Amino acid sequence: MKKKMNYKAPRGTHDILSTDALGMSFLELKAREIFKKHGFEEIRTPLFEDAALFMHSIGRTTDIVEKEMYTFEDKKGRKLALRPEGTASLVRAFIEHRMDTIIPSGKFFYMGEMFRYERPQSGRYRQFHQIGAEFFGNQSPVADAEIIILVQDLLFAAGIDEIDIRINSLGCKKCRPSFRETLIEYFSSLENLCKDCLKRLKKNPLRLFDCKIDSLKFVKAPKILNYICTSCKNNFYTLQTLLKSVNCSYNVDETLVRGLDYYTQTVFEICSKKNGAYGTVIAAGGRYDNLVKELGGQDIPAVGFALGSQRVLSIIDEHKLLNNFGTPERIFIAVIDQELFNEAFSFAVKISRYGLNNNKNISVFGPKNEKNLTNQLKYAEKIKASKVLVFAKNEFKNGKLLIKDMNNRTQTENFIDEL
Ligand code: HAM
């Protein structure tokens, strides 16, 4: 009796198979093209970091740090965490390599796996892939606009144009504290707040807007844009002028607060407007002017974004994607007379390197360790080969091989040197 396998991919994780893997590569390729155009360079950081880095940057009272981090101790008792996002790691690398002092600016991008212990559901995984960028050293809203336009370009390049860009300003070190007090006063006057809201009320009142249970009760809450200082207002106004100047449509959403504590001034989220995925947040980001300094670096402002690759891929039309990528033609190499096996093998290597009839977009299968030609052809059908190149003694003597076209079932003789 066949033994049953007892292992499954851990809950919230997925094997990324064939078309999806191709989709991921396509997205990364498009992202690289766009990052290059905007002058961003790649940084690859470790998958795990000192857990304290995330606590200090994302914030101790955030869901990510309180509930979702994969933390563990290594053999020396160091407390580490699988990265739940990329920004904290990028800032750590920026400071560690003294880029904050030597060249106090920089444009960096990253792509890779992130880990959050969330309740798995459609579009929410425990291991997921992000593509993101961070722009250090530019205080001006021009940098915010560049980041938002870059994400928009990336989504357009991936074939996603039904999007809703929502923006808000969370104020700065100077104006946020008084808004915080106003909010605490307002929320304290409400009755029957949920357990989480009560807990967050004193520590992080802005986060109450994100509450899935109570947020509808807050329609009359004070609006942050009425409280931010003149400088924050001017920056937010300039950002909008810049977005308008390139016809980038957006909506101001005063309830947008984001679930990470490091943000100052501009925050944004980009949602899908496509049927079936309406409202899915596919990308998000904002400005974080205090984080570099708070983590021990110089006083350097920054702004960035990250998109969820799986979420983006879930709304791309798969056919369009494959057309964009160009599906390779599948070629199978068959051998009738086994003494020709080595010639067939070296021919397979040659065409996989240099292409067949000038077509380099091919996938080469075979020759197979199978003597029976019928079985070889059955295999070619199974793998959906469009052509079978047959090595047979008589033809090979004359420098030729047979090409079977599997779609229209025709067969031609061809000079090997001409292929
Ligand atoms: P975030 O909003 O936590 O921001 O995540 C960014 C994107 O990652 C989300 O919009 C979503 O598409 C995707 N994402 C998040 N969690 C999951 C999940 N569990 N499963 C699948 N996809 C997910 C950040 O991570 C910030 N670091 C963005 C940033 C960069 N801000 C400034 N710079």
What are its keywords?
419 residues, binds histidyl-adenosine monophosphate, 2 domains, BirA Bifunctional Protein, domain 2, eight-stranded mixed sheet, five-stranded mixed sheet, alpha+beta
| Helical coverage, percent range | 25-40%
Bound molecules: histidyl-adenosine monophosphate
Number of domains: 2
Nearest-angstrom radius of gyration? 28 Å
Globally, the shape reads elongated
By secondary-structure content and strand pairing, the structural class works out as alpha+beta
CATH architecture of the largest domain: 2-Layer Sandwich
Strand residues, percent: 15-25%
Question: Uncertain segments of ≥5 residues (pLDDT<50)?
Answer: none
Q: Total number of helical segments?
A: 15
Major sheet strand order: 1-5-6-11-10-9-7-8
CATH superfamily of the largest domain: Bira Bifunctional Protein, Domain 2
Described by strand count, sense and barrel closure, the largest sheet is: 8 strands, mixed
- CA-to-CA gap between the ends? 49 Å
CATH class of the largest domain: Alpha Beta
Number of separate strands? 16
Average pLDDT, all residues: 93
CATH topology of the largest domain: BirA Bifunctional Protein, domain 2
